[in-house]
Specification:
The modification N6-(pyridoxal phosphate)lysine is found at residue 533. The active site is at 533 (proton acceptor), 763 (proton acceptor). It catalyses: L-alanine = D-alanine; D-alanyl-D-alanine + UDP-N-acetyl-alpha-D-muramoyl-L-alanyl-gamma-D-glutamyl-meso-2,6-diaminopimelate + ATP = UDP-N-acetyl-alpha-D-muramoyl-L-alanyl-gamma-D-glutamyl-meso-2,6-diaminopimeloyl-D-alanyl-D-alanine + ADP + phosphate + H(+). This protein has 869 residues and is an alpha/beta fold. The protein folds into 5 domains: 2-98, MurE/MurF, N-terminal domain (Udp-n-acetylmuramoylalanyl-d-glutamate--2,6- Diaminopimelate Ligase, Chain: A, domain 1), CATH 3.40.1390.10; 110-321, UDP-N-acetylmuramoyl-L-alanine:D-glutamate ligase; 332-492, Protein-Tyrosine Phosphatase, Chain A; 503-725, Alanine racemase (TIM Barrel, Alpha-Beta Barrel), CATH 3.20.20; 743-841, Lyase, Ornithine Decarboxylase, Chain A, domain 1 (Beta Barrel). It is built from 31 helices and 43 strands. The strands form 8 sheets. Strands 23, 33, 34, 37, 38, 39, 40, 41, 42 and 43 form a 10-stranded mixed beta sheet that branches. Strands 24-25-26-27-28-30-31-32 form an 8-stranded parallel β-barrel, surrounded by 5 helices. A 6-stranded parallel beta sheet has the order 9-10-8-11-12-13, sandwiched between helices. Helix 12 runs antiparallel to helix 13 (314-321). The radius of gyration is 32 Å and the shape is globular.
Length: 869
Amino acid sequence: MIQLAYLLAATQGSILGEERQTRFQGFSHDARQLLPDEMFVAVRGERGDGHDYIFDAIERGATGLLIEEQRLRELSADKLERLNQITTVVVDDTRQALQAYAHDILQRWQPTIIAVAGGVGKTSTKEAIASILARNYATFRSWKNYNDLLGIPLSLGRLEPHHEYAVLELGCDHPGELQDLCNLIKPQIGVLTNITPVQLQYFGTQARLAEEFGELLYSLPPDGVFWLNDTDERILTLVEDYQRGEHTTRIQPLGLATIDAGKVHVGWEGLAFNIPGDEEADTPITLASRLIGRHHVATMLIAYRVARDCGMSREEVIEAIEHLEPLQGRLLPLAGIYESRLLDDTHNASPASALAGLHTLNELLPEGGKRIAILGEMLNLGIYQDEAYQHVGKLAAQCTDYLILRGESTAMIAEAARRAGMKSEQIELVSTHEDAAQIARQILGREGEAGRNVVLIKGSEATRMERVSERLMAKPEEAQELLIRQTLGWKQIIVLQTERPTWVEIDLSAIGNNVRRIREIVGPQVRILISLKADAYGHGAMKVARTVLHNGASMLGVATLSEAESLRDAGIDAPILIFGYIPYWQMREAVQLGVTLTLYSNESAQALSRAAQALRKSVHVHIKVDTGMGRLGIRSERQEEILALVREARNLEGLVVEGIYTHFASADASDKTYARTQLTRFQQILEALEREGLRPKVVHAANSAATLSLPEAHFDMVRPGIAIYGLDPSEEVRVPEGFRPALSFKTQIAQVKLVPAGECISYGCTYITKQATRVAVLPVGYADGFRRAPRNWETVLVHGQEAPIIGRVCMDQCMIDVSAIPQVRMGDEVVLIGKQGEVQLTAEEVARRLGTINYEVVAEILARVPRVD
C-alpha cells in the first residue's frame, strides 16, 4: 500500500492539481498490465517511454500517476486538464523517485530484509523462504522476478507496516548493480545460491561475476548472517577472502556437502532427502516437497536453514516445506498431448539450469518411454557461449532420445550432441515455435507407450518457449493459468535484440503458413521446391529453409554454389537445386556438397561426370529447357539437342538425371497467351522424351505466378518464390486470401530538431525548408537498400501516420518531416515496410513508388541490416 504523504516526503515530489486519492494498492509501469487503483509510473526505458501511455493507464483504472516534470511541458492544455482529474505526482526522474521511496519505506517500517542472489535458482529460493516464513510471520516477497533497480522499488509499493520480513530477490546484469541494490535495501540476511555463468556478455568472466556477487556478503551488517552454498568452489573462495578481513558477519554453510546424493528421491510427486539431525534430535531429518528435480535440494535446504535461524521450530518448517510447489515456468509438470508429460521450464535458461533440466528429464522417464528435449537459445553468455552449448549438447546425447532445437546458435548444441554419439535423425533444428511443436507431435504420436513419454521445454526469456508448451498441452485452454508470460502485455511484446537501430523483422510463422497454403493449392501429389535465391529474397535463407522444410517443402532452390554452401554449412541436408551456371572449376565442390545441378550442354555434362568420377560420387542433375525466357537452357525448338543431352547424361558415369524444367517469362500477366505458348513447347519436349522412355521422374515449370494461376503447369513439382514470403507475384496475379507478408523493415528516430525556414536539407540542397520544420533523422540509407534515386520511398510511417522524406537519402541516414506528427522523439519506431497501428506500407506500394517490383525492394535490403524473428 502506497501512502501519498510518504511518497511525497521520500521523493520531494509535487502534486499537479488536487490530491484526489491518498492511498494506492501498488505501482505499475506497464499500462497493459495495470490493475485498478494502482499508481502508474511513467518510466523512460531503452525502447520506449512510459509517458506515452499515461492516458492509456488512466483509461485502465489508474488512480494515480508518477511522472517527470520535463514531460509536462510537451502536453497540451486539454491534456494537462485531464491530469488534474487524477492524483499526479511530479518528480525530476521517476526511476530515482522509485528508489528513494523504496529506501525510505524500508527505513520507516524496518522489516528484517533477506536478500537472495546468485546465478540460478534465485526466484525459487526467494519464494520458498517467503512461503515458509509466512506460516509464522507477516512476510513480504518481491514480485515474481522483479529483481533490479526498477523491479525492487516497484515491488515495494505493496510493502505494509506490519510486515516483519521482506524477502527480496536481487539480480544483476552489469557490474555495480548488486552493490547499488544492497545500498538501496540494506539487507540483514544474505543468501547466495550459486555462482554460475549468467550475463557474461557484460561481466566477461566468471571471476568478475563472482566479484559482483561478493557485494552481497560485504554489504551485510556486523550482526548479519550470510548463508552460502558450501558445494560451490567460487563461493567458498569468496568467503575465504572475506574472512581474512576484520568482519563479524556470521557465515553459515548450508550443509549441502553432507547430503547423500544416492539417497535423494526424485519423482513426479516431488523431492525427498535426509539431512543430519540437529540440536533437537540426533536422528536424520527428512525434508520432502512437491518441487521437481534434484537441484531443488539446495532450494529446500536454504529455506529450512533460514527459517530455523529465524526462530521457527523444526516441525513447523518441515510441514511448511511439504507444501512447496513448482513455480510457473520452472520445471512445472503439465499434462501433454498423447498422454505425455511436459516439463515446462520456459522461464529462462542458463547453462546450469539447462543441465539441471536435462538431468531431471532423464530421472523422471518411466520405463518404456521416450525423452524429448525442446531447447531454445541460451542468451547473454558472452565468450562462454560455445563452451556452454557444448556441455549442454554432450549431456543431451546422454539424457534424451530426441532433441529439437530452435534458434540459429543451437546448431552448436546439435553438433556437440552428434559428437557425443547422438544420431542425426534424432536431432531437428527449427526456426519457429510451431515447427518445434509439430515435430514433437509427430514423435509423440508414433513413439513409446501412451502416458510414458516426457518432454522438456526450455529456453531464455527472449526465445518465448512457453509458446511451444502451449501447443503441446493436453488442455491448451489452461495456458493462461499455468504458463508464464500470458498477460495481455506479454502477448503484445516482441523481444528484439538487434545489432543496429535499423532492422528487419521476419515472421517465420507467416512463411510456414504460406507454404501450407501452397500445399493446399497444388495437392499432396505435387512436390514443392522453395526458391531461396538472394538470401531468401532478403528474408534470411537459413531460417527460411528450416521453416519451409518443416511445413511441406521437400526441395530448395538457389542461384549459386555459394548460396548452397551456406545452407549445407548450416546443417541443412535437404535436396538443393542450383538454378544458375556452375563453371567447371566449381564442379568438384558442387559434387562434394551433394547438391543438384542444372545442365544445358553436353560439355558441362561431361565435365561434371569427370568431377563425380574423381570423387567417386554421383550427382543429380536437372535439364534446363528454354521455352521462351531467353535465359539459361537449350532452346525448345532444338528438340533433338535436348534429347541427345538427356541420353548422354543418362549414360555418363556419376550422373543421375532426376529432372527437367523450364521457366515462364510472363505467368504473372493477366493474359496467359505467351505462358501457354511456352507450356505447349515444353509439353512437346516431354512427349518426345516419353516416346523414347527418357522422361525424368521430376518435371517442373511453375514459379509463384504459375503455381497460383496456371494449374496445368504444376506437373510433378512447383517452384514458388515470392508468394512464400506473402508478396504478390504481380498486380495481375496476387496471393490468395490467407497468405501473410513475412517481412517488416523498421528503424528508429535518431534525432528530432527544429530547422528554420530557408535552410538546406541533405546533399546538394535539393530541398529547402519553406517554413520552420520539425525534422527527424533516421539511421537508414541507401547502403541499407533504402533507395536514393532516381526515386525514393517518398514516405515512412511514424506514430501510425505517413511522414515525407525530405532531401536526398544519404548512405547511412535520411531525413523526414514530422511537423504534422506531435510528440515525435528520439527512439520512436519508424516503419519502412509493414504495419503501424491501422496504417500499412506494403512492399508492393514501395515498389510502385520506386518504379520497380516487390522482388527488388525486399531482396535489396542489404545484409548489414540485422534480421530478427
